[in-house]
Amino acid sequence: MVTIRRVFYRTALFLLAAHAGAQTIVTQKIQHEQLRTFIDSKRQYEQELEKNARNVDAHYRLGLAYLREPQNIEKAIEHLERAVELDEHNAEYHFRLAEAYSADFSFTNIFRMPFIAAKVKAQLEAAVKYDPQSPVYRDGLIQYYTFAPAIMGGSFKKAHEQAEMIANTDVYLSILAHAGIYVEEGEREKAVELFRKAIRMRPKNWQAYQRFGAYYLTINQLDNAIVQFLKHVETAPDAADSYENLGRAYVRKRMYNEAITSYQKALEKNPTLVSLLFRIAQLYEFKGANNDAVRHYEKYVELVPTGQIADDARKKISELSRN
């Protein structure tokens, strides 16, 4: 049971970060305006589907939009499944559908998880089939092979084979893929050696710092994780996930002020990461700054008025406002 959940949790984390975009936004006003633009674009694609239910791009775009909203994962799956049906040779559609299936695991019961696992695997394999040159799609499949139990198709051997295939396109990314597999095999010395080799090879690239930091975070070496994530920020200053990763490490270190600053920076870069508002509110609550906590809970509810998290935010607003 624990192993199955681990498959989805780790695979989903990778897939959700794989295509993280970068936006440069410097004020809260612009954040709000860009988020509203994002919401308006959803309405636009919904209207396009009313005119033509076979508009594959509209299904794809809506699927991506709903993927950003935990309460709407089922809608994301519905639209991405339709996109795959309409264009089964599009690798990106298969990859994003695998992402949606992975995100769905936390909302389903344990008995359905093996069936969802099979769907994730099938979509990742299809993505690689239709675009074998993409290291992103192969890396997604590697994550599955690495974390899945053998009975569900997991295999370290297959994972390393996929990592070797990446070398045909990018040796640097191949090294990092092998490093990640070695981590899960318990070969930590080999993994660290490869992380450092990748950094020496391309010191200005962000991927090695991000993955090395994630490794240190998993083994609770928080200071080392922070060092690597700071390098991630330095080499990818316009990427929201670089600040989000750093914020996660600061939270684990209980450096709440630094975590809030990092999460706020992530929101500046990508204002559609609305879930960070809830995390920031929680951190202010931990600090005893109830007014700031309420303000961020209220902002979250304003932007995402429905769903369990919104309900939780309303309860917090009520509780903290009484204190």
Top keywords for this entry?
323 residues, disordered N terminus, Serine Threonine Protein Phosphatase 5, Tetratricopeptide repeat, mainly alpha, single chain
Describe the structure.
With 323 residues, the chain is mainly α. Among the domains are: 22-131, Serine Threonine Protein Phosphatase 5, Tetratricopeptide repeat, CATH 1.25.40.10; 135-203, Serine Threonine Protein Phosphatase 5, Tetratricopeptide repeat, CATH 1.25.40. The chain contains 17 helices and no strands. The longest helix has 24 residues, at 28-51. Mean pLDDT is 87; it is low at 1-5 and 12-36.
Number of helices: 17
CATH fold assignment of the domain at 22-131? Serine Threonine Protein Phosphatase 5, Tetratricopeptide repeat
Q: What composes the largest sheet?
A: none
What is the radius of gyration?
Answer: 20 Å
Structural class: mainly alpha
First-last Cα distance:
41 Å
Mean of pLDDT:
87
Helix proportion:
over 70%
Label the overall shape: globular
Low-confidence sequence ranges: 1-5, 12-36
What is the string of helix and strand elements? HHHHHHHHHHHHHHHHH
